[in-house]
Amino acid sequence: MSQNNVFIAPGALVESDEIGEGTRIWRHAHIMPGALIGTDCNIGEGCYVEGHVHIGNGVTIKNGICIWENITLEDDVFVGPAAVFTNDYRPRAFKKMTTDDLLPTVVKRGATIGANSTIVCGITIGEYAFVGAGSVVTKEVLPFHIVFGNPAVSHGLVCKCAERIPGGITTHTCSCGLSYHIDGEVIREA
Predict the structure, then answer these.
(1) Phi (first) and psi of residue 100, to 5 degrees
(2) Are 46 and 29 in contact (CB under 8 A)?
(3) Please, what are the domains in the chain?
(4) pLDDT tens digits, one per residue of 65-89
(5) Global confidence as pTM
(6) How far is the C-alpha of 95 from the C-alpha of 75, rounded, in Å?
(7) How far is CA 165 from CA 37, 145, 172, in A?
């Protein structure tokens, strides 16, 4: 099925009218009313996207991902298969929460969330950060940092292209041509 240059595979249930041009939604995905999805996104098989979710342009969400209320994925974010997001820091079945009670999570532009990672709610993952597969992220991830482990900790810096940046330097030009100034944990493009 295709509407307004949006591809919706047979078996997908799309209840939101806010799906950007060029987006592809695969089998058994369920997009709830109120979800905002940008242009040129790819939402894999078996994904679930609640309302009060904002997904930017060019986002890839691999198979089997649930994006809960109050989660924002900015432009060009990649979410690997079977990654897990949360939005309730103290869940109890008997406590009935509203959207206002749920902690927001923001994944900034260009960040990568590796397969099978768990992202605990209420944090921000910085621009072009890289979360290694199987990590449990419990606190903020700074821009351009690569984190992995349980709990995830920083193991250095990465370029926009995801190539590692050597430690102990103040400037770096990547093989892709991008240059950076580095001051401790803070990195900015030259």
Answers:
(1) -65, -20
(2) yes
(3) 2-162 (2.160.10.10)
(4) 999 999 999 999 999 999 999 999 8
(5) 0.95
(6) 33
(7) 32, 10, 7
